[in-house]
Amino acid sequence: MTDIVESFVATDYAKVGAAVSLTTHHPELTDEHVRRALVSVLDEDRDYASIAARVAVIAAREVRQEVQRRATERRIAGAPIEPEPTAGYPRVDELLQSAIESLPERQRQIALLYFYLGAGIAEIADATHLNESTVVAHVDASRRSIVDHIVGDGPGVGS
Fold it and tell me: Rounded to whole angstroms, how far apart are CA atoms 112 and 107?
């Protein structure tokens, strides 16, 4: 198990963290949830085609749940809901970031797993519990949307 953790940290940790940050828009929560997700995957006693893809899926879900919980707590407390600060994190090219952020959440998650992490269709299907044809459809749709967003004047141009 130590070898799996060392290999993940050496080769996949930074990519998974970046993918989760882009998927959730909350980089300040990413590190903690990626670490927790890795522990969770290792505790599952199941072989995944891609541990990195499964960790990314779990970490993104956990970040979203924490953000929702914090928003609910602020509403209950009557405090204004403000986005968490992201100062100190490197900026991605604004046009590409905008294109990725314009994707629906599931497409964004699958696109980052496929294009950024290099996960295969079977690995993504296994990690997200979707069938392979659905993953292929999401990859194709996200590719078209990203290209249209970057080449055109925003999302949906040329579709």
Answer: 8
Secondary structure of 45-108 in the HEC alphabet?
A: CCCCCCHHHHHHHHHHHHHHHHHHHHHHHHHHHCCCCCCCCCCCCCCCCHHHHHHHHCCCHHHH
Question: Cα separation of 61 and 23, whole Å?
Answer: 10
Rounded CA separation 82/107 (Å): 26
Model pLDDT, residue 90: 43
What fold is seen in the domain 2-151? Butyryl-CoA Dehydrogenase, subunit A; domain 3 (1.20.140)
On the 0-12 / 13-18 / 19+ scale of CB atoms within 10 A, 138 is: buried
Task: Please check whether residue 108 is in contact with residue 101, taking contact to mean a CB–CB distance below 8 angstroms.
Answer: yes
Give the phi and the psi of residue 47 in degrees, each rounded to 5. -90, 125
Q: How wide is the angle at C-alpha 151 spanned by C-alphas 157 and 86, nearest 5°?
A: 95
* Residue 19 to residues 2, 56, 80, 156, Cα–Cα distance (Å): 24, 7, 28, 23
Query: What digits encode the pLDDT tens for the residues 76-129?
Result: 676 555 555 555 444 446 777 888 889 999 999 999 889 888 888 998 999 899
